[in-house]
Structure prediction request, 204 residues.
Amino acid sequence: MTHPVLAFATVLLLLPVLLIGCATALKRDGRCLASLTPEYLEATESLTRLEADWHRAVDARDRHLGLRPTHEWPALGKSLSSDQPDASVRTPSATTGPEQDEALAAYQRLREARERHQPTLTWYDRVYRRLSTRIEEDQILTEAGLMLLTSPAIVFYPIVRWNLRSVLWDGGDPDADSDPVTRYCAERLVSDQESLLREGERRP
Prediction:
């Protein structure tokens, strides 16, 4: 068997393996995002509610003080940075009373919830972007594979795949065990499976 024919046969043999590998990673990341989604929705709902409570408390304080609000609220759900309190909740030295106390308490509840939910929001964003890139990669590779399948140029498919990965993943390997998102999703899915097993054992 000549080298070109051998190379062609080898790539045909490896092509399903490469495609299955992409599909497996895509499925894993999809399951990971699905697992995160309920927590993400709960977190955003909680933050939106607490932010609305804070807005109402500050507006009530301003009305009590006879002040005309001079600030514009950000869109609900777009929490402000937790590094520094918003100017509207800082306590002027002469401002006291239950309305001010409630405004500060509402802001504190919002900050605590934001800090508590931040890991969920961060990981959801990272997994969502990972899955989006996976889908883009899968679509491009599928189209490239179909175009090259009936041509001797199929021998270049691994090179096409490698070059595409270098571009989409900035030279990194999203499937490496050391990749943070891959490691997070693997651990999360294992934890989900263990939870299902424990739940099944508790059922009569």
